[in-house]
């Protein structure tokens, strides 16, 4: 809920969240006030409505010591002996003229002559007898009312702040967006060239390079522009992506292999181009439906290790395909056995070094240079520099191997690029499409859709961290789905979100959709000038880029998915899916991985929600006995402490749900604002690797709201991860880590009491501490006469576990620890007691040995009541003993009620 609060008259109410940023007049005083999602302190945002402002109310005054006109707000009652008699006789007021007479006056009013009734005969006024309907004003509809009309002049609404997720053409600097778009577009041209070489790397497919390059550039042109118009991540960039192109490489190769010896080229070309277009369209349709049905968030529950193993296998096949195209190995891609056999028989080391050596060397150089960076400008510089050096080698090279570096990729005779629409314009060729071949390889289209869904989820989540706030994954699925469907309708290749290019464009200054639009336009220009540009690019540059993206893909998904939370069984899941994909094939690996992911996800999700209990500092306190005034303060202000006891296995989906539940509480204006967020991990039994992304988002949330985040019972891997992130430390750490929930609550309570000036209470004598809680305060002086005052030094044991019970103690000052000595010699702190507390009382009632050790944590002043003294005063002053018994019964009842409340809250 949003909040409307007038700073002039104090009028306040909750309104729907959709009205945040809008303005409305206060129904009470007419001041224009902006609706906000939260209030900082008591501030409100006032705006002028046609120059109107409420009349200033004069300061209220009251006579004090004969001085009239002193403002009430300036009186210091602590420095004056002001007594107010609330029980004195009332003045007599004439009901007819309002004349005030002295108390006790009877007869007629000397002012108007009306008869006066004695004060005790004036009847009580019932609420039903009061009619104030004539004073009620007609309420003007406000912005939160159903009958509100924005065109009404009675309640003028001013334009509020723009929604940060609303699409705006101009976001950030136009010049920087233009610059980032040009850099990304030129770099994407080289990458599209490299990925197109991968698709046609199989023997016999090289003749299709101009057509495949046309589908790729069409996909970028359409996808980049359309996605920039629909996405709500303004700097997001899309294009042909390595994983999807790897699946497309196998898809096109299988279709060609099924048709090569049976059909003429006039049938093969339109069938392959139609298959690419159909793959793009159905991939987009799958994404669109997933977003439309709002199922995107459920994808976050799929384990990343299983995805990483499959995509790592795709990277392995891409690397083999790249070598096949560069060294012309003519591999048989029927299965893993035929691939291995053909590779071993066709591999010629010297010839491979001569043909593929420069490409492999350039790819390794780029991979090492970009190992820790995603800087698009630097990568483009390396590509352009390599292209320039290769071109220069062809002109000034002194030997044939040096001049050979300038050799471009050999193109078929004719145009270097042919747009697929030109093919589909020929009705005869469209009739030659063999839809049965496309249908027989339809599982590859399904693989494209599955991998697109999974990779987009992961990359969108990482971009949320870069962006600093959450994004609606369903909206991004919708945007990318529409982009792919339009791309497929235009004969383009499937496109997907690129984290590396998006981050690179962001680093180059791209902050808005202009970057994506310019990127698409640059690649669109490539559709018309490729014939001129491509022969100038040395072959080793696009082939080296292909080596780089293959290695980067394997590194990101096989190695970088490992974090401090990666358990042993998750590592085996990754290895298993990776080996299955390599040994059995891509489709089999994806099927195995999806089945395994579903089983693991269901197993994890079936263990219950991520939060076991929601507690607050008002109903769950530390084991510290505090003074009654401090307990009342914690009851009143304890909601500043919000406790969430987590459970089960934490993975990306559950962490996402946790972040949402935390944000709901932080935005709740019906409760005190959260200042201390306590996350207890006692019941957590493990972490998925992707949970690290959830903690990154938690850090962003903590910084956004400016709260203290407290971690308790943290597992070792969590502490190690938080230390690596720099989130924990002695003083400056963003997160505070405590041994258990009790110590964490004590730390939070100390800060709450300190903020309310109740931490360092004025030192009081024991009678003052007992007065508010002792049933018969008049017996306190008598009780003090039979108590023996004792002083305990720091570290001194008042009594030990197993000692004889012969006395009870009242604490006047200082603090003591209640310790339990375990059988293995360990000491467990049960609670802490402070001024006003009582301990040892159960022993003198049950005569059982002491159940725990009481040790002074600092210098303490105690008062001892022995069992002998209690027996003596029971005979001489039974009323005093009764008062003591009632006091202890009340104390024990309060403890029992608190314990019951804790148990109830923990069981809910």
TrEMBL record:
Keyword flag Membrane: yes
Primary location group: membrane
SUPFAM superfamilies, sorted: cAMP-binding domain-like, SpoIIaa-like
Span list, region Disordered: 47-73
Pfam families found in the cross-reference section: cNMP_binding, STAS, Sulfate_transp
Ranges annotated as spanning the membrane: 176-196, 208-226, 233-256, 268-290, 302-323, 352-371, 378-397, 442-459, 479-500, 512-530, 576-600
Domain STAS: 643-748
UniProt keyword annotation of Metal-binding present: no
Domain Cyclic nucleotide-binding per the UniProt entry, residue ranges: 783-873
InterPro entries: cNMP-bd_CS (IPR018488), cNMP-bd_dom (IPR000595), cNMP-bd_dom_sf (IPR018490), Membrane-Transporter-like (IPR052706), RmlC-like_jellyroll (IPR014710), SLC26A/SulP_dom (IPR011547), STAS_dom (IPR002645), STAS_dom_sf (IPR036513)
Keywords: Membrane, Transmembrane, Transmembrane helix
Subcellular location: Membrane
Topology versus the membrane: Multi-pass membrane protein
UniProt name for this protein: Sulfate permease
